Amino acid sequence: MADVKKIATRESYGNALKELGAEHEDLVVLDADLANATKTNTFQKAFPDRHFDCGIAEANMMDVAAGLSTMGLVPFASTFAMFAAGRAFEQVRNTIGYPHLNVKIGATHGGITVGEDGASHQCCEDFALMRVIPGMTVLCPADDVEARQMVRAAYEMQGPVYMRFGRAATPVFHDESYKFVIGKGEVVAEGSDVAVIATGVTVSGAMEAAELLAAEGISVRVVNMASIKPLDEALVIESAKECGRIVTVEEHEIFGGLGEAVCGVLSEKLPTPVKRLGLHDVFGHSGTAGELLAEFGLDGAGIAAGIREFLGK
Amino acid sequence: MTDREKKELQLAAVRVREGILTATHGAKCGHPGGSLSAADVFTYLYFKEMRIDPKNPRWADRDRFVLSKGHTAPGLYSALANRGFFPVEDLPTLRHLGSYLQGHPNMSTVPGVDMSTGSLGQGLSAAAGMAKGAKVLGKDVNVYALCGDGEIAEGQIWEATMFSAHYKLDNLCIIVDVNGLQIDGPTAQVMNSAPLDEKFAAFGCDVVWADGNDFDALEAAFGCFHANHGSGKPTAILLKTLKGKGVSYMEGQVGWHGKAPNDEEYAQGMAELAAARAALEV
User: Fold this and answer.
1) CATH number of the domain that residue B69 is part of
2) ipTM for the complex?
3) Which of B121, B160, B197, B212 has the most CB within a 10 Å radius?
4) B41-80: b or e for each residue (b if 16 or more CB lie within 10 Å)?
């Protein structure tokens, strides 16, 4: 995949906001002094009157977004995942989630691929925090094409949405004809010995792992699960039925994220052996995105090793 | 206002206080103290100040009210019920299983509630968002947020105030019910917030003190808010009030922050309010 185009999904977020902003006058964007990093500055340059910098005050920003939404506007509240899901958890829970307001949260810099900033900024808990809020939709795109469609899908639905975007450039493997649908996953590689269900940047890694293992005679299905909540339960069950074993991969603690969502479905509906790849009760640390993915076993080679171990090969 | 108008407001405030007692007595819990201290400003807002339509609670161009000190829901509910948003007879269902009158304001179930609140410090931010939204949409909508003087220890209040001044939200009226008491004791002892006026002024607000249990004073204070339109500054109205106001055994008593009257206390409180009404009707 060396010659593949790479784009960070936070860039996609900014570009999609600008595109949607031209179509919809009710779309407004909030940021907390990170517009250059979250890429909402792309929207800001085009629509300065509809971009509100809230300063370094994420709790206030979330509730301001709630208030804006009650006036009929569609706010996209943007900051790093750590501050959107972490710092402002209770604001999101009580003032956006509880009244089920039409607020969209664009959380960039999710996971360990934040890299050099280290553990304080590497949010690996956001899926867990956002999933448990009743009625919250939780999404994480695998590439640029999906990310841009996701922003559009979030705008088009009524109700709160949490979207996690990445800092690091990631391979673009979808073509423009791809159509993202909330609640639907996607088989990106067919296989029958094991199914890998991945989300975000780790989908590319899982595809790489499938290629590595194919050479060893192991057939790996790869599922891109960009819709973490609602989860595509039918696809999870179908994959479990057809492959017999499931590996989940995410830039997230193994607690409360995609892995446990998949386990929840399977333990109730089709008990199936599952191995969860992610961070195992540890914080990240400084390093490049690539180094950290390798260290935590979430790049192509690491995911392949995890699958081999699971299959006893 | 005319004497007749004032008397009508005073009578409405008696009904709002009766509703507060009836609701908390029916619930066997809840927060009467801070509901009673704010009963007059609830009454002033819903019976005189705000552009609202009880028959059309979601009217897009209505003024908005956010009860940032959401635990005083009995006061808000009683004002809404007495103003015709829903039947006064429903007030005793407060906090009961199956009732739409949730323990803290719920915009999804209660007609007239503009924002779900209860977790302190958050309502003012939501109100600021509404005020900003009105500006963006070019709507002539005023937004009122009522905070507690204990609540303002929450840092988010000051984030919201900074935001409101920065974005020149002169359509936002920040009201603080300074009754001086919070759950753990006098506010001055639990977490001293004084000097409140200097704090709000330093954060960019036009500040006015008023007696929050006097309708002439309330009229003058909200007059300042209207006079500030066009100034680019949010208004902070600091209301000196008496916690438990209107029910003798609750007045100035910290213990009545979050406790419901029993049958005997309820009867006494209602008798006192009936006497207050009779005195007004003379």
Assistant:
1) 3.40.50.970
2) 0.97
3) B160
4) bbbbbbbbbbebebeebeeeebbbbbbbbbbbbbbbbbbb
